[in-house]
Design goal:
By secondary structure, the protein is mostly beta strands. It has one helix at about 90-95; strands at about 5-10, 15, 20-25, 30-35, 40-50, 55-60. The protein has one domain (about 5-95): OB fold (Dihydrolipoamide Acetyltransferase, E2P), CATH 2.40.50.140.
Length: about 100
């Protein structure tokens, strides 16, 4: 469905492991690094196979109401706090579901 370096617009609807967000385009799963449910994003596909694709954010077209500025300057480097771009109450809600 996609190939590497494709640019697409999408809106993730679920937070997943390590702070990524899951969007589906025509039922095809796309995992967005650093995405937040409710964002409207322009993303670049960096990995694609027959079952899913991985993408990175090129541009936040409209931020989610749950998106916040991470308090740790290393949040996207060390891997220890991947959900800091989502407000805390929303993090808890996503982890319960």
């Amino acid at each position: 469905m996609f190939k590497c370096s494709d640019i697409v617009e999408l809106s993730p609807d679920k937070a997943v492991y390590e702070g990524d967000a899951l969007a589906k385009i025509e039922g095809f799963p796309v995992f967005v690094q650093g995405g937040c449910p409710g964002d409207r994003l322009k993303v670049k596909i960096v990995k694609a196979n027959k079952n899913y694709a991985n993408a990175v954010i090129e541009e936040i077209l409209e931020p989610s109401p749950h998106r916040v500025k991470p308090f740790c300057p290393l949040h996207n480097v060390c891997g220890g706090c991947g959900w800091q771009h989502m407000d805390y109450e929303f993090q808890l809600e996503q982890k319960r579901n």
